[in-house]
Amino acid sequence: MGEVQRVGGDDRRRFGWSPRVPDLQCEPRSAGAASDAAPIPLVEHYARAAWIDAPLDGEVNAGIRAKGEGIASEGAEALCARARATLAEQQAALPAFRDDWVVFMPQTGWALSLDDFLVTRMMELAVHMDDLAVSVGIAAPELPAAAFDPVLTLLARLATRRHGQAALLRALARTERAPSAINAL
């Protein structure tokens, strides 16, 4: 893999776009304005998300890509430095957070439980790590079960929401009756 790959907007999204926990309003449920919003279920978060059912060339997704392209213009080294700094910040911040806390996301107007919010971040990382690996021609890394299992559960629930139980069951258990697609996103 001796060749240096170009870092594009999709790579920025894949490796660092996700909101960092310290950037969000995360606090105990009884501690103020951010926690006044009751957390919604994780699958509802995706049902409400404007991008999930939008066309890839639609305004929402084009805007996401444009932001990524702007940040990616800093180059691969800057992106890696930013990712390392974000990881260090997360490692320092997360131990102070309690699992009964609520994360209010101002960009959406709703809140998730901290656990559900962290599942959204794990899913983004898992999916975009695979995207990044494919884009540079390497194998995707295997994730530990503690990260992969909640991601798999979330993606299965989202695929069921989109295609129904029968399609998901057939795709996983009966290839001869499987639909052509059971994508979650």
Q: How would you describe the overall organization of this protein?
A:
By secondary structure, the protein is mainly alpha-helical. Helix content is about 55%, strand content about 5%. It contains eight helices and three strands. The chain has helices at about 10-15, 35, 40-50, 60-70, 75-95, 115-135, 145-165, 165-175; strands at about 25, 100-105, 110-115. It has a three-stranded antiparallel sheet with strand order 1-2-3. Mean pLDDT is about 80; it is low at about 1-5, about 10-20 and about 30-35.
Q: In terms of topology, how is this protein built?
A:
Elements: H1 9-14, E1 25-27, H2 33-36, H3 42-48, H4 59-72, H5 76-93, E2 102-105, E3 110-113, H6 114-136, H7 145-163, H8 165-173
Antiparallel strand pairs: 1-2, 2-3
Helix pairs in contact: 6-7, 7-8
Brief account:
This protein is mostly helical.
Question: What do the pLDDT scores average to?
Answer: 81
**Structural class by sheet pairing and helices:** mainly alpha
Number of E strands: 3
Measured by DSSP, the beta-strand proportion falls in 5-15%
Which parts are unreliable, with pLDDT below 50 for 5 consecutive residues or more?
A: 1-7, 12-19, 30-35
Amount of helix: 40-55%
Tell me the Rg in angstroms: 18 Å
The helix/strand series, from N terminus to C terminus, equals HEHHHHEEHHH
Q: Main sheet?
A: 3 strands, antiparallel
The number of helical segments is 8
For the biggest β-sheet, the strand order reads: 1-2-3
* Molecular shape: globular
Distance between the termini: 30 Å
